[in-house]
Amino acid sequence: MKHHFHFLLLGVLMACCTPMDQMESLDYRVIRYESADFSSLAKFEPMLEDYGGLLFFVDKKLTFSVAALEYTTVDPFGNPVQASGVVFHPLNRKSKGVIDVLPFARLEKNAISEDMYVQEGLPILQAYTVIIPDLLGFGVNKGMKPPFLMADNTGRVAYDMRRAAAQYLWDRFRYRFPAETTIAGYSLGGSAALAVQKYYETHHSNTVKIKEVYAGGGAYDLPAAFAAFAQTGFTDFAAIPHAIFAFDHYYDLQLDFSKIFIIDPPLHSDSWYNGGYSSDKIEKLGTNIRGYMHEDFFKPFDQQNEEFQKLYPYLVLNSVSEGWKPKAPIYLSHANVDSYVPHECAQAALKKLRKAGGNISLIGYPGDHGVVGAHFILRLLLRLL
The dihedral of CA 287, 292, 298, 301: what is its sign? Predict the structure, then answer.
């Protein structure tokens, strides 16, 4: 009888554990806090005002909180660094669950933690708790060099944001943070969504259970992206230099940029790379890749110079289509003709992750990158119904 009592007591204690008993505690600081309701839709980015008539399924009596948090994570070198992000949480309704949303590329706009009311947070309108990290190079650390498309660091920063959010929600609302989550993201957030899934499933499968992943418009396979860019010679977003600068800096590759780029002044100057990737820098480069990339970029891989050969393993290392078998189902979407991120990225990820045994699907949509992205969150809301 005593043994039965001990087992019963253990079960009660486990049921009463706070979320931080499963995840290691992480200190945080609330930068800003507000409460809001459905009328706050007008505070979201102006383009979302067009969604008003389409959000007929949203509970218009819902009230919710939005808080910007600062917390400690690590940079790709493993050094402690402060980061930030936003947490949405329903106030007068029971949360339907947690969604990790990874941010779009913000360009010259404010960080998630500065704007707060961003379209990535719209699942709050269906009473979901939403966690959105700024990622490094934005928010409280906007002066640092962004680890652009560096998959493992993206996963780590998102996980630490999740830990900070769990502690904050327990402290403020006594909300028992569930292990289960849905992950979503578009464009930069699309590749980040799979990076976070990979990180959670390979490093924290005991503390995070992923229900499903919605990713759109992402550069999931970097060799496929570079090959597609080389074939077309065109892109509306200068992603190639940002990835090269990040890998060169954080992996200490010491690349000879005269064999990577052809323009002067050199692209790799600190004033160009620091502070993210703004539209004025992209406009300065133009849309013609041949106007700034070395001629060897457009050759087959085995004919490229030694600097591209040196770079290639890190493209593979940071491709979220490589080196794992996804456990949670993945729903990819991509513009059929995408001038930002080649459709070949999604096709390569579909092929490789299916071969690895993953449950993954891909839907192509008419329209360019921006058009499809403008409706990604709306489609996510409909799927969450």
Answer: negative
